[in-house]
Write a structure and sequence with these properties.
The chain is α/β, with parallel strands linked by helices. It has twelve helices and seven strands. The protein binds guanosine-5'-diphosphate and magnesium ion.
Length: 332
Amino acid sequence: MVAPSPPIDLADGVTRRHRAAVGRALSLVEDRRPSSTETVVRLLDALRKQSRGDSRRIGFTGPPGAGKSSLVSALARELRKRGLTVGILAVDPSSPRSGGALLGDRARIDPDPHDDGIFVRSMASGGDLGGLARAAFSAVEVLSAAFDRVLVETVGVGQSETDVELVADTTVMVLQPASGDILQFLKAGILEIPDVFVVNKADLGEVAERTRRDLTASVKHARAAGLAFHEPSILSVSAIDGSGVPGLADAVGQTLDALAGSGDLAVRRREGACAWTEKALARRVGELGIEALGGRVALRERVEKRVREGACGLSIAVDLERDAIRTLRATA
Ligand SMILES: Nc1nc2c(ncn2[C@@H]2O[C@H](COP(=O)(O)OP(=O)(O)O)[C@@H](O)[C@H]2O)c(=O)[nH]1
Ligand SMILES: [Mg+2]
């Protein structure tokens, strides 16, 4: 039997939304063996060439228990009703012992097994890249090639954990009633204001409504203090009974349309790709490697040039890593 050329055939299967192909492609991007890197780069390049360009990526942050998984599930159903295909990437906290994703999230994202327009994948965060799995960037590229909407759920909310912005076109922050500390962080400008806020668990009644009012006041405060320039949507929903979910789909859709219309979507993608590439590279080659490449400013220019030319983050990181090692060897 002749083995098929994996990246090309695989890319074809992914863009046709074949479940087995999507699953295999995601496993491939998670494979950290150096021998797989070349194949992954070729796969991502092939996917880029076939990309439809109208896929959108929506990130979800928020503290554990706020209802992110439940809401992602409810939103996915709503998007399916609207005729959009949906890929979901749920990044779980890693178990420090096994290094694997903790189960549990899976249970709350329960797509119709007969619907081939929805696909769910869990990934362990691996404890780096701020709550985002190391392979998440490439995984989002794979899902984007297959699905109209890619929903990315990440662990937590806060300074180092908001890296979902590097892969998402827009971010939804999910809060639950009595999230006082987060409101304080927002007010103080410690947390960045996302495009969309959701107060989940509206079915709990007055306590949820009070949180929504407090959130509105905190955002107003942050804006008055010059800590935020845009006005986020603030919505009340219940992932459990579904109320407010169509409104969330509308708000996210409007945000994405506005971003695409103004050109900011392309800017966000480019900046996200640059920042992700630099992070990935810095982790691999360290400060010495960055110095060998001429320092951070020069590096940013090189990365941005390649991103503008359409190269994928992983291939840029791999090339620069090779450069860094060559230079380090030569000067050793
Ligand atoms: N009452 C109520 N409970 C909810 C709602 N959404 C989620 N939950 C519950 O909140 C808990 C955490 O939900 P989960 O989706 O796993 O939150 P995550 O950790 O942010 O992903 C679970 O017990 C859910 O059943 C909601 O809209 N209303
Ligand atoms: Mg979850």
